[in-house]
TrEMBL record:
GO molecular function: UDP-glucose 6-dehydrogenase activity
Listed name of the protein: UDP-glucose 6-dehydrogenase
KW Oxidoreductase (keyword) present: yes
Stretches assigned to coiled coil: none
EC number of the protein: 1.1.1.22
Alphabetical keyword list: NAD, Oxidoreductase
């Protein structure tokens, strides 16, 4: 059944959701306050670099199933469901800034003259959905006919289209059976493909998202703490992760030790969860998350310290080559990038830092972007492998050995093949793995 769906907010989440909804067969209008972005989207151009998104936008803007506007009047009484895909950035206190969601409700609600379902997808502190419903009902001519439901997204950057079209699960926080029925029609295609469905109340839906993020972050910090243990005791954290990962109760995913997590979601979402836990007096959770964060930050500092130690204790005036700038491979996103934090810490201590990344643009004072790996490493006193782009695994250490001043590489992601680098005359240092040199 074809529904009329509006998607409010057209950045990373909104653009992907709008394209996905069109692919599910619905009529879709995306709304945003930025006219330049709307013009681009109407031409089928993606506002962000995301694998497979542009072809899908192109296909459905051409087919007429998908269009974009800046005018809320076009969607208010048109849509069967309004999907909120707005950002919830971090505010100075660490709490989520809900102003974009508030502004969208304040614009939409006064135009809702007939009963409407508003479906939130943004990651929010628990209690937000109920609060937005109250706000919308106060402002809407339709009053209590306006209902909120919550449907968290679990999109990974670089896999956002795949995760939208073939999600691991669909979570629907609903308050009525009519909302549930309508949303099952919205997701009829993935549900027909046996995607697990969890139906729950609003608060549980909001918490499911942040719990998923916090649990994954915990896995990463746990393995990084074990990496330090391996370092202290002479063990190998990669073999340890492989071995415990074979236990299906544990699983190998998100047990890659190294520089830890970054990006636009994990760090801000778990901080916002800690702040909300504090507000609600759930100290055990906020303390727990603070430990996860402290371990994560510690990994960045440890790699920076290790680098300084490897060049003899003073990095000032030394040339450092950094491979990788994005927060993870497959994206040009540098928000809260562990690689850039380490690079900036070294630049602050007077190092000359050259950064190469296959996609990301580096705009930080003190860091110079190199056009190739070769350019970055030429004359380097030390090389740092900080974001594990697959192409870095296939670099030729013998060739790079001819370009550098000193053959030392720190593998901050534990992905390089130690013996290959050693055979080419390199000292390769991997946190949590005993060096055989
Ligand atoms: C994450 C969640 O996976 C997604 O469900 C949520 O909606 C948004 O946040 P994303 O930020 O795209 O997605 O990145 P993800 O692939 O999950 O990686 C997060 C960070 O953890 C990256 O910095 C990555 O390098 C790091 N990481 C991941 C590790 O350090 N070790 C691992 O084993 C896995």
């Amino acid at each position: 059944m074809t529904l009329r769906v509006s998607v409010i907010g057209t950045n990373y989440l909104g653009a992907t959701t709008a394209a996905g909804m069109a692919e599910f067969g619905h009529q879709v209008i995306g709304v945003d306050i930025l006219p330049e972005r709307i013009a681009k989207l109407n031409a089928g151009t993606s506002p962000i670099y995301e694998h497979n998104l542009e072809p899908l936008l192109e296909l459905h803007t051409r087919s007429g199933r998908l269009r974009f506007t800046t005018d809320y009047a076009e969607i208010a009484d048109w849509a069967d469901v309004h999907i909120l895909c707005l950002g919830t950035p971090q505010s100075a206190s660490g709490a989520a800034d809900l102003s974009q969601l508030h502004a969208a409700i304040d614009t939409l609600a006064p135009q809702l003259t007939r009963p409407a379902l508003i479906l939130g997808k943004s990651t929010v502190p628990v209690g937000t959905a109920a609060e937005l419903q109250e706000r919308a009902r106060r402002l809407a001519p339709a009053g209590d006919g306006v209902e909120i439901a919550w449907n968290p997204e679990f999109l990974r950057e670089a896999f956002a289209v795949e995760d939208t079209l073939r999600p691991d699960r669909i979570v629907l926080g609903v308050q009525s059976s009519s909302a549930r029925t309508l949303l099952e029609q919205v997701y009829a295609i993935p549900l027909s493909e046996q995607t697990p469905l969890v139906t729950c109340d609003l608060a549980t839906a909001e918490l499911i998202k942040v719990a998923a993020n916090a649990f994954l972050a915990t896995k990463i910090s746990f393995i990084n703490a074990m990496a330090q243990m391996c370092q202290a005791a002479g063990g190998d954290v990669t073999l340890l992760a492989d071995a415990i990962g074979y236990d299906s109760r544990i699983g190998r995913e998100f047990l890659n030790a190294g520089l830890g997590f970054g990006g636009g979601c994990f760090p801000k979402d778990i901080r916002a969860l800690a702040v909300r836990a504090d507000e609600l007096g759930v100290d055990v959770l906020s303390d727990f998350i603070s430990s996860v964060e402290a371990i994560n930050e510690g990994q960045r500092a440890a790699v920076a310290e290790l680098t300084v130690a490897q060049v003899g204790g003073d990095i000032s005036g030394k040339r450092v080559a950094v491979l990788g700038a994005s927060f993870k491979p497959g994206t040009d996103d540098t928000r809260n990038s562990p690689a850039l934090t380490v690079a900036a810490q070294l630049a602050d201590q007077g190092a000359e830092v050259y950064v190469f990344d296959p996609q990301a643009v580096v705009v930080r004072p003190g860091l110079t972007q190199a056009a190739s790996v070769e350019e970055a490493v030429t004359g380097a006193d030390i090389v740092l492998h900080l974001t594990e782009w697959p192409e870095f695994r296939y670099l030729d250490p013998a060739r790079l050995a001819e370009l550098v001043r000193t053959r030392i590489i720190i593998d901050g992601r534990l992905k390089l093949h130690q013996p290959t680098w050693q055979q080419a005359g390199w000292k390769i240092v991997q946190i949590g793995r005993a060096a055989t040199l």
